[in-house]
Amino acid sequence: MPTTPNTPDRPGTSHTPHDGDPYDGNPGGGTPRSGRRKKALAVAVTAVTATGVLIAGAGIAEAGSGGGSGGGDHGKRAHRSAPKGDGAKRLCKRAPKIDKRIDRALDRLRAGETRRGSIARLEKRVANAEKAGHSEIETFLNHKLTFRRSLVTTLEQRQKDLKEVRKWCAANNNGKSGNKGEAQGNEANGTETNETEGGAS
Predict the structure, then answer these.
(1) Under a CB-based contact definition with an 8 Å cutoff, are residues 162 and 169 in contact?
(2) What does pTM read for this prediction?
């Protein structure tokens, strides 16, 4: 009876044992496949961990160098010294613009119902909330209205004070008699601008 050659059951497979692999029929030598996979995985994990440590270290070093040299706006503010003057020179320079801003704010507050930011418009909203029975909305708007009305008094008083400031500036060479006004120039400017424009919006 003719014999058939010993061929593998599936293409690409063979019953011939491979040297050095006990799982392929050679129990006597070589490194198991799972062992090689574990070593490769360990090497990959180690490389990723080392990279992460290097990146983190670089970030910390950069942050440290920035803070140490006073970099960034926060660092500059933290190292500012206390004002050494009253900012008279700067205030004298800014007085005309501040006066105009106060005028604009008062004009807006005193305008009619169609002008956003006016007292009359907010009063109309309060009346509408009361008519609709929205008590919570009415309470909120009433408190806002109280503040807006008080703002008129505040700005009117500031207008009077600024008038006296301008008289003083005219009599004192616009505050140039000394260098004390230079130290607080930005603070004087910022205070007047914020309180005038922010409150009346």
Answers:
(1) no
(2) 0.49
